Amino acid sequence: MMEKATITIDGRKIQARYGQTILQAAREHGIYIPVLCDHPALPPEGACRICLVEIERQRTLQPACTFPVSEGLVIYTHSPKVIEARKFSLELLLSDHPLDCMTCEATGNCLLQDLAYEYGVTGDRYQGEKHQYPIDASNPFIVVDRNKCILCRRCVRACAYINGVEAISVFYRGFNAYIGFGADSTMQDSPCEFCGSCVEVCPTGALWPKMAIGKGRPYQLQKVQTVCAYCGVGCQIELQVRNNRIVNVVGVENAPVNQGFTCVKGRFGNDFVHHPDRLTRPRVRKYLLEGGKREGKERGEWVEVDWDTALDLVSRKLVEIRDTYGSDSIGVLTSAKCTNEENYLMNKLARQLIGTNNIDHCARL
Ligand code: SF4
Ligand code: SF4
Ligand code: SF4
Ligand code: FES
What pLDDT shows up at residue 363? Predict the structure, then answer.
């Protein structure tokens, strides 16, 4: 069997691999087909019908995200029929949608909004019953607003295939279908591990990180790409910063290690940076400043000092201990919350200045 099929998309001949879908082949060749339920990291679902394309000799329009390539296919991605079908699907989705883009957290970062804009769909064509689901804000990290859910099932697949937890599923059918957690409990009471993979893939504002609410529109945020400091895996994350404060964290989509996904710590655990309990200036025990032995509770108390005072004291003590008891009487523990460069410098300090190989790091545990 031939490994490649020649297909024609919008008059352009391309070589597609057997086993690929039309959408995958189009993406590989930079040809745009809109999607809602499809996500490159997830298995195809064929739920939203936004990717419908016209294929010669096919009786009806076909979803590009599930239709496999074969030799000689001739495909039109933006024919009048296709555009009409996409508009119809969008109108149906918007007919049961709150349409509160003005105050919605997802504005500017919402595939549904982008497609409505692209196809000039306003959501006023079909009037009917709208759901009024209560908001589920039961857990510390993620707000669930089912009124904005388009049942694309990206979250269901992310939870099952990326995180392997299967905390989300679709309950009931037809107009009454909704996404639910565990045995239809709150997200907090479900097996959810709060990795946030579902939030990462949700194309609308239905799943949103609590920490980011009210903190700014995408264009107001400075985006800083960095490596998660929590463990040795090295997931790449994007810190979204406003007024010098981290307001949200997302995964970096094409990062070799994590492909846009993280664990709960990487995505939701970076608020320690601004935590009021965090020490930002050094402290030393009072008796170490005054000299002599630690006697009495009062002389053991912490005193805030400047960095020079603290570092002079530490280096003097380290030298004293090394000279009295030998280099190997000292051990150094470094932290995953420091940068690689800082940890490298600690290694230099231990081995070259103190003269010991007693150095370890919490990420190795
Ligand atoms: S989820 Fe998207 S389309 Fe819906 S209100 Fe929010 S921004 Fe608008
Ligand atoms: S946060 Fe993670 S574990 Fe929880 S529902 Fe979403 S994908 Fe599943
Ligand atoms: S919550 Fe988001 S990802 Fe999940 S089905 Fe609804 S719109 Fe899709
Ligand atoms: S993207 Fe193909 S059906 Fe949703």
Answer: 67
Torsion of CA 230, 236, 238, 244, to 10 degrees: 40
Q: 190-216 pLDDT, tens per residue? A: 999 999 999 999 999 999 999 999 999
Q: Residues lining ligand 2, CB < 6 A?
A: 158-159, 163, 165, 167-168, 192-198
Q: Is residue 86 part of a domain?
A: no
Domain membership of residue 40 as a residue range: 4-78
Counting ligands in written order, the one closest to the CA of 156 is 3
* 262 and 312 within one domain: no
Gyration radius of the chain over CA positions: 28
CB-based contact 275:238 (threshold 8 Å): no
Does residue 37's CB lie within 6 angstroms of at least one atom of ligand 3?
A: no
Tens digits of per-residue pLDDT, 59-95? 999 999 999 999 999 999 999 999 999 999 999 999 9
From the list 214, 180, 181, 209, the residue with the least C-alpha distance to 195 is 209
Q: What is the DSSP letter of 134?
A: P
Neighbouring CB atoms inside 10 A of 130's CB total 11
- Domain assignment present for residue 31? The answer is yes
Q: List pocket residues of ligand 4, CB cut-off 6 Å.
A: 35-38, 46-51, 63, 65
Predicted TM-score (pTM) above 0.90: no
